[in-house]
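Team,

Forwarding the record for the chain on the shared tracking sheet. I've put the sequence and predicted structure together so nobody has to dig through attachments.
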Amino acid sequence: MSRHLLTASTALAAGLAFAAPADAFDCAKAKTGVEIAICADPELKAADDAMGAAYADVARRVSAEQKPMLKGNQLTWLKRRDEMCMWQEGPERTACLLDETRQRTDLLLGRPESGPGLSSALTPWFFSRPQSKTQCSAEIAVYEFGADAGGAGEKAFDAWTQAVLKGLEAENGERVIEPGFEYECNYDAQMVVTYASPELIAAMIPYYVYGGGAHGNSNVLAVAIDLAAGETLAFSDVFKAGAAPGLIEACTADLLREKIERFTDVSDPGSAGSVEAQARDDLKTYGEAISEAIGNFERWQIYADRAEVYFSPYTLGSYAEGDYVCTLPKALLAEAAGPQGWIVP
């Protein structure tokens, strides 16, 4: 990862100072609601201890420059986890804390969401910056092969990640203050490795940006890299000629189901017909956007048993509708790939 990618800052938000990460904490000294909830549940305490051990291991391995970045990102994550889970009660609170803690452990350990895993280890790379008069705050957690990148595919993965983060910083890093109007601004990005094997790595970087105005915006960029060839895969590299229409049809059908499910009034079963008619009309309007997404592998999130094609807010409807994802099952993908085979065994 390029060490001059972003201007590093060791300053941490003052409001996070209470939450310094550690391998584990002593339940005899538990004071906060989160600490008490963790100590009350053996499974949750074990998960928290595992997360603390993973954090300590990463802290030992990262460079001196990365240590404050790791700490800042961990503090921010702790605060957000607590805010997300503590308004819930009883089993719901425990489940929330358990899920968030396990996800954080997976991130620190570099575990892919599916696949047998890589031949080389990924290392988490963090950036944490508070807002200043000239820069927006940023919270970034991605992976790199870094100095251990031996093959062309691993170097291609690092280069793709660098390019995405440089683009995010160029678009969203500068804080512009207009006369008489100051606003908060921030952007967050956290990589997820959706599939990993010695032959293929597929990852995505979901990100959220707020630069003033009524609301922020979210998006996802994804990549699939043939590690042996060192190539970033495109749609035409994977599927046989003429495969696109069938995948577009399947994606559109899944999006239709999602729109009907979202907007049907469960208290009025008779509304389903009118909702379906409107959803069909909507998707006809957005047919070009669906076709473009199917043909653009930066929208594909690849897993062992499926692929998901991502549509950001505004792409298939109003902002209030949020984002959409259509799911393509592995059997359909294998059929579309033809004799050359789908990229995931």
